[in-house]
Design a protein that fits this description.
12 helices; alpha/beta; Rossmann fold; binds iron/sulfur cluster; 2 domains; 4-stranded parallel sheet; 10-stranded mixed sheet
């Protein structure tokens, strides 16, 4: 019997991350891309500084671009669609992409600029259609260049999750608000952790997958990802033309005890779209022995209250923009919170469209426009994304009022 060819994933480590990119790409077979329109799709979701493990390291993107431009006469684009209320160009500039964007051989595109394309997803389990970037039909080849991240909502965010940036503007948020209790009940028979969001992300694989993947673990992100954990310098690159295989290797290196169950959207994709790839055994790695690259990362906490005993966060179907605001609020004001709240009398916060009256304490701050429907049952703070300073101001005002 002929053995089925396994997908190849190469792993390289070098303190000079450009060298690591070259080493990793040299080991995989990339088709002839001359004449193609290629999208470099880093993860540039936020206006943050470079090398924090939040947005993709520009050095990794530049090295990928240089590698391909030296080999293929292609039309190179670079772009993303960040989280809501974020300016795409500013996010690129703040995260260190300015020089790259000035390169005459590379065209910057804001993926939200053109009128979106509506895609039907007849095989979608929960997502039946979605609006995606208006550039979609101009692109022949997509290169996903994500940061290797732990993620509070999805377990981990890797090369496929990075493709969520192809969804048009606020339609991304709709993925957080889908409800299908029956489907969840059915899937829970075979999967421990599964949410509507995981199913919706997996459904996207019916309309697009990346053609080439360069996972940036120069600075990986552990703990409270996607943006409030810690950067961990790994100087590592993972490359493949098979996104699922690359994502599995990224998990093997950073969460060796996990299975795909821990990143449910990948498990669903492995069951429905790429059934021959489930574990490390189904993949050929270069080098064959990748043990020396293993570095366990702190997983995402199951609940934010693990770290903040005096904060109770009720998060039902929020998106990562709201979650990031809360994490930053807690991180930047720890001293203030510790002074005024205890585990017996905690600071109660609620985010997300799915919160119900029965989830709330009487003194809960309802944060973000998604909680508006519960505004009678707590202190509502508007915003989408809600603003950290406004939340703090409201909390302080209420404390002053209560002390009178
Ligand atoms: S209010 Fe918060 S959870 Fe709702 S869409 Fe806006 S940022 Fe996301």
């Amino acid at each position: 019997m002929v053995e089925k060819k396994k997908p190849i994933v190469s792993v390289a480590r070098n303190i000079d991350i450009s060298k690591a990119v070259h080493l990793a790409l040299d080991k995989i077979e990339i088709p002839n891309l001359s004449g193609k329109t290629i999208l470099l799709k880093p993860n540039v979701g936020r206006e943050v500084d470079p090398k924090l493990g939040i947005n993709t390291n520009p050095d990794v993107v530049e090295a990928t671009f240089n590698y391909l431009r030296d080999r293929y006469e292609a039309n190179f684009l670079i772009g993303d669609s960040p989280i809501i209320n974020t300016d795409t160009k500013k996010a690129f500039e703040q995260s260190g992409f300015t020089d790259l964007l000035n390169n005459k051989d590379l065209q910057f595109i804001d993926l939200d600029k053109l009128t979106p394309v509506k895609k039907e997803i007849p095989n979608g389990k929960i997502l039946k259609n979605i609006r995606i970037t208006g550039y979609f039909h101009d692109i022949d080849y997509i290169i996903s260049i994500p940061v290797l991240k732990m993620h509070m909502h999805c377990g981990a965010s890797l090369s496929f999750k990075n493709m969520k940036g192809l969804i048009y503007k606020r339609d991304k948020i709709a993925l957080h608000h889908l409800q299908s209790p029956k489907l969840i009940e059915e899937l829970k028979k075979s999967m421990r952790k599964i949410k509507e969001l995981d199913i919706a992300i997996a459904d996207l694989a019916n309309i697009f997958v990346p053609d080439l993947v360069v996972i940036d673990a120069s600075y990986a992100h552990e703990g409270m990802g996607p943006s409030s954990g810690n950067a961990v310098k790994l100087d590592t690159i993972i490359a493949s033309t098979n996104f699922l295989a690359a994502d599995i290797i990224a998990l093997t290196l950073t969460q060796p005890e996990w299975s795909l169950e821990d990143v449910p959207h990948l498990k669903l994709i492995s069951e429905t779209i790429l059934p021959s790839i489930k574990t490390l055994k189904d993949i050929k790695t270069i080098p064959e022995n990748i043990n020396k690259f293993v570095k366990r990362l702190e997983p995402p906490p199951k609940s934010i209250t693990i770290k903040y005993q005096n904060v109770k966060l009720i998060d039902i179907d929020s998106c990562s923009a709201c979650l990031s605001t809360i994490f930053n609020l807690l991180k930047n004001n720890k001293e203030f919170i510790d002074k005024h709240y205890t585990s017996e009398k905690p600071l109660n916060l609620a985010i997300g469209k799915g919160i119900k009256k029965s989830d709330l304490y009487s003194d809960t701050y309802l944060i973000g426009n998604c909680t508006f429907h519960q505004k009678e049952n707590g202190t509502f703070i508007q915003g989408c994304t809600p603003v950290e300073s406004t939340i703090l101001k409201t909390i302080k005002e209420k404390l002053t009022l209560n002390s009178k």
